[in-house]
Write a structure and sequence with these properties.
By secondary structure, the protein is of the alpha+beta class. The chain is built from seven helices and ten strands. The protein has helices spanning about 1-10, 135-160, 180-185, 185-205, 215-225, 230-245, 250-270, and strands spanning about 15, 25-35, 40, 50-55, 60-65, 65-75, 80-85, 90, 95-100, 105-110. α5 (about 215-225) packs antiparallel against α6 (about 230-245).
């Protein structure tokens, strides 16, 4: 039985599909072997070259007692190509191994160019391309239009009178819109504006206690420069304003602190010429 299988295997030959391929075509080398069921094939990849390139790995399929081995390649040079096919191994169910010689096949590749066509003859160089004459009229018109538009814009700007100054807000920058801010639910803004006004008043009387100082440093400067002021009351006022700026507060409480600040500043005097507490 083994001798019969070996004879059938060795007698099998390769076929080329398509039969007359041209340069660049996909070529399949097909070999069909008659083997008993249960035989496992081992096929090796096809070695390539510059003229012949393998497009895919080898494929081996078994159906109805026939083992089909297919190699897919392409040739990029016309003429005959002698291709050496790799050997294959057949593994029988009982553990025996049979080697199938790949052999050699000649594949003839046809050229896609006509047979009598030689190398193309060089063509003479083309002459210089004609150029349309350049006209300066469009450029002059464009520049003139741009200048005219610029002049018209300048004249229109001169004829336009100065813009009226915006009406001044009856509430100056030094006056805090307390009522509007409280009605809008912004007690923190009222406290911040009042604290800023108080620190500005202090800086106007004592330049060394400017607004760049924190509250404790400012009070320390006032103790040395203005010991006659009600510093305890002033310290409580400044700290109350700071708490109102950074902590949730009831609008009525904020208004009480603001009223206290107004009264204290009136008692201490006006930085623009009013008297001070002695």
């Amino acid at each position: 039985m083994i001798a019969l299988v070996a004879a059938l295997v060795q007698a099998a030959t390769w076929s080329v599909v398509p039969e007359a391929p041209t340069v660049g075509d996909t070529v399949r080398l097909v070999r069909r072997l008659s083997v008993p069921p249960g035989v496992q094939p081992r096929v090796r990849p096809l070695p390539g070259s510059e003229a012949v390139v393998a497009l895919a790995g080898p494929q081996a399929t078994y159906a109805d007692g026939v083992l089909t081995v297919v190699y897919t390649l392409a040739a990029f040079e016309p003429g005959p190509h002698e291709i050496a096919l790799p050997d294959a191994e057949l593994l029988f169910p009982d553990g025996r191994v049979e080697t199938v010689r790949g052999g050699t096949i000649v594949v003839r590749i046809r050229s896609v160019l006509p047979r009598d066509a030689g190398p193309p003859e060089p063509k003479p160089s083309l002459g210089p391309l004609p150029r349309a004459p350049t006209r300066a009229a469009p450029l002059i018109v464009l520049v003139g239009a741009a200048l005219g538009m610029t002049v018209l814009w300048g004249v229109a700007r001169r004829r336009t009178g100065p813009r009226p100054a915006p009406l001044e807000d009856p509430v100056t920058s030094s006056t805090v819109p307390i009522d509007r801010w409280v009605a809008a639910g912004e007690p923190r803004a009222v406290a911040a504006a009042t604290a800023d006004r108080a620190r500005a008043w202090i800086a106007a009387h004592v330049p060394d206690a400017g607004r760049q100082l924190d509250t404790d440093t400012c009070l320390a400067v006032l103790r040395s420069r203005r010991p006659e002021w009600p510093l305890h009351e002033l310290a409580d006022l400044l700290r109350s304003l700071e708490r109102a700026r950074f902590a949730p507060a009831v609008p009525t409480d904020v208004m009480i602190v603001v009223d206290q600040a107004e009264l204290l500043l009136q008692r201490l005097g006006d930085p623009h010429g009013a008297g001070e507490v002695a």
